[in-house]
Amino acid sequence: MLDILSIGNANADIYSNGKIFPGGSANNFAVACAKLGLKSGFLGIIGNDEKGTFLINNLKKNKVKSFIRISDKNTGTVKILSKGFNKKFIKSLGANEELKNLNLEPYLKLTKNIHLATPPIELLKQLPVGLNISVDPGKELSNYSITQLKPYLKNIKIFFATEDEAKKITGKDYDLAANELINLGVKIVAIKRNSAGIYVKTLKEEFSKDYIDSKIIDATGGGDAFASAFISALILKKSVKEAANWGLISSSIKLEKLGAQNTPSLIKLKNQVLKL
User: Fold this and answer.
1) What would be the CATH architecture of the domain defined by 4-275?
2) CA distance 75 to 10
3) pTM, two decimal places
4) Rounded to an integer, what distance in angstroms lies between the CA atom of residue 37 and that of residue 272?
């Protein structure tokens, strides 16, 4: 059985210097979890093309169990202009457009931990009570109001969002947004506040933590690095505060390198934990 299955986009990230890296939030998450020693899986849709083969080979290299559907459409691409925390994306969804048609039922028995990253709402609607479900809403779910998402929030254990996403969904500032999500059934809310750090709220505690100082080369995938390390820590029976530390360390290491999947190994992350 898998430790976690990540479901969502897989893209080829194309930088202004011409370099191409594997990307897509769910794909990034799955690879980062595998680097931290988890039995990680990825479910997504790619094209029958060179970029799709590139992504499949990358999953194999990183020991991620892939459940890939092949589409007649091209593999998704993202052209990236990134400087510090400022990012500009030009997206071509390609095969990712078909994610809304996925039937998740055959895959739900593979793991007790499911992560949805920037998912179409059609996938969120399929998730049952009883699994440990984490969601990163991204642009897709941020287009829905809290009223529209309310029926599904009780099934979500962990909700990651940027400050802007949280406000767009709830119409409230980050702390009040987190409180509303908790009241509607989410167990843990982690708000990424750009350069202001992160804010975490549960039923029993709330705290803020600053980002770890790092030389920011590329912010692409920084949120995925945080979420994957946070979830990995919880699966490995760490506390919520320890999970936040893991997330911040993983994100800081990623920010110093080009490419969304330059996240740390478990050994490197633990070595950094000892230095805090």
Assistant:
1) 3-Layer(aba) Sandwich (3.40)
2) 8
3) 0.95
4) 16
